[in-house]
Amino acid sequence: MPSQIQKIFSDAIIYTIGSVFNRLLPFLLLPIYTLYFPPAEYGIFSLVYSFWFFVSVFYLYGMETAFQKLFLEAGDDVSKKKIYSSTLILIFSTSVIFSIIIFFLSDLISAKITGSTSNGYLIRLLAFILLADSLYRFPMILINSIQRSKLYSFLNSVAVVLNVAINIILIVFYKQGIEAIFYSYLVSYTFLFIISFFSTTKYFALSIQSATVKHLLKNAHLFLYYGIFLISIDLIDRFILEYFKGSAEVGIYSASYRIGIVMNLVITGFKVAWTPFFMNLKGEEGNKEIFSKVFTYFCYGGLVVFLLFSLLADDLVKINIAGFTLLNEKYWSGLVIIPYILLAYLFSGLYLNLNVASFFQNKIKYLIISSAAGCVSNIALNFILIPQYSIIGAAIATMLSYMIMFIVLYYYSQKIYRIGYEWNAISRAATITLIIFVINIYIPQFFKLSYIYIVLIEILSVLVLYYVLLGAQTINLVNTYIVKKQLK
User: Fold this and answer.
1) In angstroms, rounded to a whole number, what is the distance separating the alpha carbons of residues 425 and 297?
2) Low-confidence winner among 86-95, 241-250, 354-363 (lowest mean pLDDT)
3) Which residues pair with 321 in a beta bridge?
4) 3-class secondary structure per residue, 125-162
5) pTM
6) Which of 5, 143, 145 shows the shortest CA–CA distance to 73?
7) How many CA atoms lie within 13 A of 421 on its CB side?
8) Angle, alpha carbons 111-114-116 (nearest 5°)
9) Apex 262 CA angle, 261 and 263, nearest 5
10) Share of the chain above pLDDT 90, in %
11) Which of these, 356, 361, 346, lies nearest to 405 by C-alpha position?
């Protein structure tokens, strides 16, 4: 068991370094975006960006998860080849049709989501990006499914470096507007598709199997609903916020939201490694104990990351290096939402851990029910909280929605595939984290300490939590693994 747990977290680290770079990209470029673009302009980018991710759900119509599930379950290379080829050709055909429609309706779409037809050129650019975005995902999913984590990470890393370089050239040197961001995505995604496709040609044939397509679509349509609900939770707050408070507030909210991406990096890296990991343990003796341990270690790691960045984010974003700060000062009013966003991402990661039951028992409907509960609660909470609390209300709505999703899925998952999670240990860990967090919040209010002392206390608090939660556990895990290797 120690070696298997070590496998999931070592793979997760590799994926975090690579695949997750795509999620890290907006974070890396925040200093440039917030320096060169005013909040209102960055707000327009955030609205178009949100539309992009919402529409991409329909471009993929659940095929990502359906493809990976069927590919992993396929017994031989011939079957895998049929599944991959049919999926890629089908996605290419439908994506071309969708992009043509978006291209010709660009001005109308722009007016609806940004309030002006003058941003129609961004939607036309987006039509091409969506095509490349849809295509590159499937060769990369295949590479992930055969557990070539280093190749997966390398390709993503190269694409991110390319994206960052183009952003800097176009924005800093050529003084282009937010369209530069979209040009950068178009080039990097096209590059990623070409290279990843040629890395997977072993599984591709220029043919499409109708029986395979029917089987894929039968599984995919359920994941489509699931995807719509999930993406709505992530994005709908921007549009409600724009409706009540304007695009400048959306820009401030979106920029600060990006700081929480540090937790999202952990979640995304884990997610990429998690599905092939638990699917390969299906039917294995003792797998429930492994899943329980993974859940515990995930909670511990998430709590450490939460405490680290909720306490230090405010200081980190204001560090000035050669005239650049991570967030320009006109965006600093949004930093108050960071703890809520970190917790929202943490709950989304806990939710991912529960996918085991739905996949093993073919009860995808429970993923749909739980994500629907999160989506409905998110919309309601945003309309209730944003008018009075603005960006704080939006952040709290997101956090509570993910918590509701987790609770609902936990209830159904335990009914169909009971796993004995270590709730006593997890509760103690959460309590310690909360106490340390509250103490650090109130220290500056009760004691007149200099800035450097406050930072040192924050760092010490994180180190203490790491030792209490992860230090002893890591040592025990490594010792057990060493003993097992020696016995062999």
Assistant:
1) 10
2) 354-363
3) 324
4) HHHHHHHHHHHHHHHHHHHHHCCCHHHHHHHHHHHHHH
5) 0.74
6) 145
7) 18
8) 45
9) 90
10) 42
11) 346
* Tens digit of each residue's pLDDT (9 = 90 or more) over 181-233: 999 999 999 999 999 999 999 999 988 989 889 888 887 877 788 888 988 89
Is the confidence at residue 131, as pLDDT, over 80? yes
Q: Which two tokens stand for residue 444?
A: 């500056």
Q: Which residue has the tokens 């009540």?
A: 244
DSSP one-letter code for 450: -
- 324, 31 in Cβ contact below 8 A? yes
Residue listed under structure tokens 């049929």: 82
* Secondary structure of residue 168 in the 3-state scheme: helix
E-strand stretches of 142-219: none
Asked if 350 contacts 404 with a C-beta cutoff of 8 angstroms, the reply is no
What are the structure tokens assigned to 459, written together?
């760092």
415 contacts: CB under 8 Å, gap ≥ 6: none
Q: Which two tokens stand for residue 109?
A: 């779409």
Between the alpha carbon of residue 352 and those of residues 175, 206, 278, 412, the distances in Å are: 41, 35, 11, 14
What the block records as the tokens of 352 is 């991912």
pLDDT (tens digit per residue) in 314-345? 777 887 777 777 778 888 888 899 999 999 99
Distance CA 478, CA 488 (A): 16
